[in-house]
Amino acid sequence: MLKSRINTSITAILVMAAAILVIILSFSHYTLLVKNTFTEDNQKNLASEAGQDALIVRNELQFAEASVRGLSKVMEAQYHSLGKEEIQSFLKKMDSSDPIISLSYVQADGTCYFQDGRILPIADRAYFKKVMGGSIVIAPVEDSRLDGKNMIVAAAPVRLSGKTVGAVQAIIPANKIDALLNVNGNEDFSETNIVLGNGTIISTTNPEKRNSNIFSNTNLTFEDSNGLNLIKSNMRGGKSGNSHYYTNKNEYFVFYMPLGIEDWYIFKTVSVSEIAFKTNKIMHYTIPLMAHLIVAMLLFILYMVLSDRKNRKMIRNKNDELRSTKVELETFIANLPGGAFRYNDSEDMEFQFVSDGLLKMFGYSREQFLEKYHNSFCNMIYGEDRVQTLNNLRQQFTQSKFAEVKYRIVTSEGEIRWFLNRVQIVTCEDGQRQFYAVVIDITESKQAHKKANDAMKQLLTLANSIPGGVAQYAYEDGKLKLVYASEGFYRLCGYTEEEYKSKEHEGIENVHPDDARFLSSMISRQIAEKRPIMAEFRMVQRDGKVIWVSLSGTRTVNQNQQVFYQCVFSDITTLKMTQEELEVEQERYQIAENLSDDIMFEYDIPADCMEFSPLFTALTGRHPNISGFLENILQNESICDKDLPEFKAYLNKLRMGNADSETEVRFITKSNEFIWHRIKAKIIYDSYGRPSKAVGKAYNIDKQKKEMQRLLDKSQRDPLTNLFNKTATQSQIEDHLAESAPVERHALMMLDIDNFKAINDQFGHMTGDEVIMEISHRLQKLFRTSDVVGRIGGDEFVVFLRDISADDLIEQKAKAMCEIFRTTHASKDLSYQISGSIGIALFPEDGKTYQELYPKADAALYKAKRRGKDCYEFYSEEDDFCD
């Protein structure tokens, strides 16, 4: 018998071993088939995914190209010229409709304006030069000047009047293109690159390879020894292809195809590890299945042995659970935030159980508690509450198994406390009823409730004392319904509380008919937007009197999600009347201001904000409200820049509280003319005595200033030639010399017409005057406006040549003046030859003041006379020793 059992066991073991061997061999063959299938599918999917990635990227880039082409056409159609303001205005309107793309505009000089206000130079970028040649360009850019990162730019030229004046460009961050490449494929095993024709990687799912060259990797070993050259050849011919290569770490399949943009290619690479990963994933499910089959056989054999042991263990666990539940229940009762007890259904309601928590609440030991109350629940209740409490319990038990009552008790220290008692009836198997009760001390809650009631009474008293009224509205079914109103509210409406409540009310009542629709619309919009209610309207009281009311309501939501508005109504009739009077006064002031040529202004000193009257805008075309006025005053374009420093000093005086001074500035009109104004202001101080505002007026004094300038010019001019007279000439030169640095070079030239007396004697003084006027006119044209040309005597002239960049310039001017003399004729007698002599003294070599230079130039003049006239001479020290 024993031998038979042994043979049976051996046979069973052999059968099980054979079955396991068959399962293992079948599993190995299955694994090989799965791997081959995955290899074939992977190579097909590689080409498909590369095509999908190429389509996504190409669509994005072509969209960017279409966007810039369309925007360039819009700019060419809308604008005849593109200045800074037109560019910024257009940029604000531009919307790429693609969150990836940001747009900008580049001027012909390479200045690029961005939508966020930044301005960068890009004239050195190769793609910019190409687009300015008239081509639409898509190009990669390394190290963007915006954020130092790589990007791809699509740019289209903008042509106005047949000339390329700039370009619209769309900027796509390279990492955004990288994100598009991540749409397909597994990042752990595959890699996608976009490369230029030379092999440079411009976008990749592997950031470490950005800007590297795919042909420079020396660790690649191709299955075909000519694999790398074949890839380069196909790229030059715009062909697609695939390859198989190895590195020192792994084995890879690669598929490449043209992107359809420039000479760009997309390379899709997948690691053979992905095939192994997929195969292993299948094995991950297959191996457990095989193991389950084996284990199932083993479990069937062991089932009978383990079944009995399992049953014994389950019984033991149940006993442990019962003991654990008992301990947990006792712990729970002991830690209740209150106490628990059980009493029977007898007349005295005797205690069957009392928790430690209840004893702690009373301050008694168990023996003291049971003795004090004679082991009766009835006696535990405070005497004044006992009858009512017991009646409430009996009444509630007639309707349910549960009851809840509140009553008072007395502690061991004689303190009266409030209890909340929840009781449940439990019927035992023998039919006896037991009452299980849980109590909580609610004394603090009762006290808080009393305080809340007292606070509510105070709040009602406060609401009734408000000069106006308070009301609460419930918002239900799209309508406001009055819930509560103070006495002040009823007084405001002209009703008593009983009169008002005798009618049905909905929404805000007693509104003036002219305001009803507007008020209803405004409140509906504010409620829909879940904002506070704010409105001003007219209310018709019971006696027909019309008053102005201000409504301010706060939105609240209770725990039941019901919406309420706590509203305050204030009588603002007096305020409104005052506002109307003020508006009339302001209108009168505005009319008076419009009839004047003077500009009113108000300068907010703490806020550094200037507000001009509308006449300022009419004059300058600028906005009348200017923030940061003093801080940015040197960049102000409405005031002549020469007047800005003095105006700034004047404002600083106002900020210090000094309003005694005044200043004069020139406003720049819309036609770029200068209009003189005299500025005067008075200061308003705040409650702390600090300057708060300066209110003043800019008086138009342009006519007076120009008349004074005309008179001044007339006093400084020679009446015959309109050149500076002797006094003005000397003053102008002295001013220039006083401001000159020693490193600067100037020249003082003395001119004299040779033998001028003979012209007067032969042709008459009228002809002499004509000769002087012609020479003066031609001298003015020869020199710059910064130079000084003056007539200091009958036929004597002075020229002050400023800021000489080269000494040759002095001689050129001297020769040109000699030529002016030679080509000037007396009357119509062309045979009469006129000439002139010139003496020259230099700053700073010959002198640093007019008093030093003038005699030396005069000495050089007479030196030229002695040489035979009709020439020019420079001063030298030898001239001082000549008579």
Automatic annotation (TrEMBL):
SMART domains: GGDEF, PAC, PAS. Residues 744-877 form the GGDEF domain. It is found in: Cell membrane. PROSITE patterns: GGDEF, PAC, PAS. Its main location: membrane. Keywords: Cell membrane, Membrane, Nucleotidyltransferase, Transferase, Transmembrane, Transmembrane helix. GO terms for cellular component: plasma membrane. SUPFAM superfamilies: Nucleotide cyclase, PYP-like sensor domain (PAS domain). Its EC number is 2.7.7.65. The keyword rRNA-binding does not apply. Residues 325-400, 476-530 form the PAS domain. It is an enzyme of class 2 (transferase). It is a multi-pass membrane protein. The chain crosses the membrane at residues 12-33, 282-306. Residues 403-454, 533-584, 661-713 form the PAC domain. InterPro entries: Biofilm_reg_signaling (IPR052155), dCache_1 (IPR033479), GGDEF_dom (IPR000160), Nucleotide_cyclase (IPR029787), PAC (IPR001610), PAS (IPR000014), PAS-assoc_C (IPR000700), PAS-like_dom_sf (IPR035965). GO terms for molecular function: diguanylate cyclase activity. This is Putative diguanylate cyclase YegE. It comes from Caproiciproducens galactitolivorans. The lineage of its organism: Bacteria, Bacillati, Bacillota, Clostridia, Eubacteriales. The gene is yegE_1.
